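Standup notes
- DV: blocked on the single-chain target, sequence here:
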Amino acid sequence: MVTSISEVPDNWIFENYLNLSETLNGQDVNIKSIFNARDRKPSFYIFMSRTENKYFWKDFSAGKSGDSVELVRELNNLTYRFEAETKVISDYNNYLQHNAVPSREYTEGKKPYQVTQYKTRGWNTDDIDYWTKFKIGSQLLEHYNVVPLLYFKICREGQEVNLTIRNRNIYGYFTNSRELYKIYQPLNPEYKFFKVKSYIQGSEQLTGRQYLVICSSLKDLMAFNLLGFKNAEAIAPDSENVMIPKEFILDAMHKYEGICTILDNDQAGINAMQRYRELYGIPNVLLKYEKDVADSVKTYGIESTRIHLQRTLSHTLKNSKQIYTLCDFYQ
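- DV (later): unblocked, structure below
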């Protein structure tokens, strides 16, 4: 009998609750949205995270995303993750009583694209037009190692054919040692990001201030820096579907006087903030302007966004340690 969610294969959760017509063995799957009945072009993606060796999903049509447990929570309109975990464990035990579990060997299946080559270029007016909408200038872009790209090439592992991507406004995100970890295409809504390696964005720029804020993206992180909160600094995960690693969080809990999240105010972002609270007791600040910090700065300006956040952010950070010191993970 299964007693822990960790004992339930995540591929079984997807196959069972989505009634998939194929077995998940490492390949990516694209189906029509299960949350938007008007979805004509399949916009629901199920994909394997190579870093975590588990499946995640993203519904572009409905603006939702998460792991297998989050899928069950959304499908059943449950408030808390533990409710979804309880349901999955119960359903899986029922399944085991009536079905033989096949042995399954992991295969790569349809491998994701890998970035094989890229070429940098100089800044131009298209770049200026894009970044200055968010009040982000060359000094901040250089500080966080954002470099414009002329093109990049991708191919699937084991294949020799490279696909060359050329477009306006393509940017490479680099570490301080000039290793490429992500490619950003803001004008390509279907393929905005190509992840090259795992990396905590902003981690190399931390200086040890009083408070730490977890943002949703590098662009939001840079926009947060514009707000002028001198005693707070920010980081961001390398993907909106990935959380900051537990080891980093626990270490930060000892180093900082307070930590909070300011993620997107859509359902996916709210779910992620709830996850940080459930796991670590880290509170969140909910934006009431635009979807994220960068869009808030773009629409309302730096000063207005700073005033909008100041009181709530200050209160949340000052009281955050009182909350997460009660969390088991902090001990």
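- Follow-up: The first helix runs from residue 10 to 18.
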